[in-house]
Amino acid sequence: xxxxxxxxxxxxxxxxxxxxxxxxxxxxxxxxxxxxxxxxxxxxxxxxxxxxxxxxxxxxxxxxxxxxxxxxxxxxxxxxxxxxxxxxxxxxxxxxxxxxxxxxxxxxxxxxxxxxxxxxxxxxxxxxxxxxxxxxxxxxxxxxxxxxxxxxxxxxxxxxxxxxxxxxxxxxxxxxxxxxxxxxxxxxxxxxxxxxxxxxxxxxxxxxxxxxxxxxx
Length: 217
Hints:
The chain is an alpha/beta fold. It has helices at 22-32, 51-63, 121-130, 145-159, 188-204, and strands at residues 5-12, 38-45, 67-73, 80-83, 85-87, 114-116, 135-138, 165-171. The relative contact order is 0.23.
């Protein structure tokens, strides 16, 4: 009998004055109704440089997942964006929840400049689109706490847990966050379904598909 695939999903606490964060709401919803064959654990990360990495590593050690999928809010993006690359830099445009605002600081001093996600990024995007949820490949995870966590996850995989697979997904605002503003949003239920599809696709797919996913700028 095939063993259940263990998935660790992480979302973030609210930040930048928001009262909620759709990444955590969607992660929690996805974990409540996992796809067949998957065991999903949801963990909320603080939107704080340094502390977020510690909580993530503690969760990995506690749950020993096969796949880690970290999720964060990218206000202004219209769809689920599966991140391709994490870069070794903290460069905060706004302070984190603790008030810290690092500028041009390496996440891991002496570490590689960047890591690619250890997920079938394009296959995940294609599967989410097929499920009726908008999605695309992203080639930048920013330089805020999302990229901070993404890079540290990939560094952990590269240096300590080579059997682990993982990556990062950014999600749009929830509709309630953009009331009265001309900004794109996506229902948390749709985001949660997209995350379930990504988790299931990652669990069964080791080799990515070859498809257009690049950008001209």
